[in-house]
Design brief:
Elements (H helix, E strand, L loop, with lengths): L2 E2 H7 L5 H9 L3 E3 L2 E3 L5 E2 L6 E3 L2 E2 L1 H6 L4 E6 L27 E3 L7 E7 L2 H9 L5 E8 L4 H9 L13 E4 L6 E8 L6 H7 L5 E9 L2 E2 L8 E3 L2 H6 L6
């Protein structure tokens, strides 16, 4: 059956669908010896020889074992599949066949849940979703006022010009010097929570993601990982091939 090339590349675990599109436009993909640069081109891996950067991916498509792993990321680990500086990566903390990549990102100093997979289609759907809630525990320097918290919950314009969508912010028990909050977002702008609280004059001193959709960190210590269940994958709105 013919499928779009970017989908096949994602299914082979080589890259996300979006990254696969860039590979196609850059001329890194060929079908039956012909370089393809037009998005939307289709091929049938049962009949066509599909190469990415000169390497045949047909066997990867035939033998691909889809892997979905939940990691409770420690602070000081990079949410990436590669790093020129040689820092510890989230992929270094899990054992799985084949090459994995993170679904979305947690910044270097943030702890908590992140999903690793070799299924590019899954990555594309989950990372782009505006309906999957992501819940964080946030510790702030100082105690923001109720007015400031209501402002953040309504949405604010950050210094980089990004306007945040409404967020759910639940106060937790504070200390004398620090506020504690549970923040739920449906979007994933770079370092969004840190920038939100910076905008009201209270920097974030600790940040941890404790929930993705209905998937929680219960029973999963920092630095440890486990496979997602089929029910959890389905709960994220994804149907496995």
């Amino acid at each position: 059956m013919q499928e779009r090339l970017q989908k096949l590349i994602a299914q082979a675990g080589i890259a996300s669908r979006r990254a696969a599109e860039e590979m196609i436009k850059a001329g890194y993909v060929s079908v039956n010896g012909e370089v393809i640069t037009e998005l939307g081109t289709k091929a049938d891996p049962a009949k066509d020889h599909i190469k990415v950067r000169g390497k045949l991916i047909n066997l990867k498509l035939e033998n691909q074992q889809q892997v979905y792993i939940l990691l409770n990321k420690p602070k000081g680990v990079l949410s990436s599949a590669a790093d020129p500086e040689g820092r510890t990566l989230v992929t270094d903390l899990v054992k799985a066949p084949g090459r994995l990549h993170p679904v979305g990102r947690l910044d270097y100093n943030t702890e908590g849940l992140i999903i690793l997979t070799n299924d590019g289609a899954f990555t594309n759907k989950v990372a782009a979703s505006k309906t999957i809630p992501k819940v964080y525990q946030v510790k702030t320097k100082g105690l923001p006022t109720d007015v400031a918290i209501r402002k953040l919950a309504r949405g604010v314009r950050l210094e980089d010009g990004f306007k945040t969508a409404p967020a759910e912010i639940k106060p937790l028990k504070p200390t004398d010097k620090n506020g504690w909050y549970e923040v739920t977002l449906y979007e994933g702008h770079n370092q969004q929570i840190r920038k939100m609280f910076d905008s009201v004059g209270h920097s974030v001193v600790k940040l941890k993601r404790i929930k993705i959709g209905s998937i929680t960190d219960a029973g999963l210590p920092i630095g440890k990982s486990r496979k997602l269940t089929d029910a959890e994958i389905k709960s994220l709105g994804y149907k496995k091939a």
